[in-house]
């Protein structure tokens, strides 16, 4: 006698060991691990993009600080006269480190550091960029001293100034650890 269909189905069900379920769970685990690693990569790329954006913003702000410093030199040339809202020039530092003098963005030099009004670069987070700059009067670097200038009791040739600008989310003179961009340039003004 042949076994009935129901008896065959029951026998087949008892013979199953659950291998399909185990394979499906392993596949789900592998897919989950791949998704988690992809999310970590996307998160890292987002942080890199944000840092690059901040770096470009700070570089542009420091460039603006240099241009403001150059414009102010043309207007006041390190004098502390009436109506001069900018601060006078700093003296040339005498201490060198690795062939260059140390930056003056410290609280001790705040009397000579100019601060540009902050502006909001990210309206969502509210982060601002602080721009500070100062000027050093380098005098006549190329040693120009002509006889007729000595008779007139004034400098001749090109008068040189170094402008140093710093841009950061906080004032450069108050926090040296925050990400910032510092740019320097030498600016010549003709005295003749």
Description of the molecule:
- β1 (96-97) and β2 (100-101) form a beta hairpin.
- It contains three helices and six strands.
- The model has no long low-confidence stretch (mean pLDDT 78).
- With 192 residues, it is of the alpha+beta class.
- Strands 3-4-5-6 form a four-stranded antiparallel sheet, with helices on one face. Strands 1-2 form a two-stranded antiparallel sheet.
- The longest helix is centred in the first third of the chain and has 58 residues, at 19-76.
- The chain has one domain (41-190).
- The radius of gyration is 34 Å and the shape is rod-shaped.
Question: What are the SSEs and their pairings?
Answer:
Layout lengths: L4 H11 L3 H58 L19 E2 L2 E2 L12 E9 L4 E13 L7 H6 L5 E11 L11 E11 L2
Antiparallel strand pairs: 1-2, 3-4, 4-5, 5-6
Helix content: 25-40%
Largest beta-sheet details: 4 strands, antiparallel
Number of helices: 3
Average pLDDT figure:
78
Total strands: the figure is 6
How much β-strand is present in the residues? 25-35%
Question: Strand order within the widest sheet?
Answer: 3-4-5-6
Cα radius of gyration in angstroms: 34 Å
Low-confidence spans: none
- Structurally, the number of domains stands at 1
How would you spell out the order of helices and strands? HHEEEEHEE
Helices and strands: which structural class?
A: alpha+beta
N-C termini distance: 124 Å
- Give the overall shape, derived from the CA principal axes: rod-shaped
């Amino acid at each position: 006698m042949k076994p009935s269909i129901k008896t065959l189905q029951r026998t087949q069900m008892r013979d199953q060991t659950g291998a399909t379920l185990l394979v499906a769970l392993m596949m789900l685990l592998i897919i989950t691990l791949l998704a988690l690693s992809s999310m970590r990569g996307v998160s890292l790329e987002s942080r890199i993009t944000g840092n690059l954006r901040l770096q470009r913003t700070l570089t542009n702000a420091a460039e603006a600080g240099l241009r403001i410093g150059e414009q102010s030199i043309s207007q006041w040339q390190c004098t502390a006269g009436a109506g001069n809202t900018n601060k006078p020039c700093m003296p040339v530092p005498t201490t060198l480190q690795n062939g260059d003098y140390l930056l003056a963005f410290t609280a001790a030099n705040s009397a000579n550091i100019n601060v540009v009004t902050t502006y909001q670069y990210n309206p969502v987070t509210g982060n601002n960029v602080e721009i500070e700059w100062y000027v050093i009067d380098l005098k006549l670097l190329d040693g120009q001293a002509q006889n007729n200038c000595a008779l007139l009791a004034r400098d001749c040739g090109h008068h040189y100034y170094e402008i140093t600008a710093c841009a950061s989310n906080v004032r450069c003179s108050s926090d040296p650890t925050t990400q910032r961009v510092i740019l320097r340039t030498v600016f010549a003004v003709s005295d003749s």
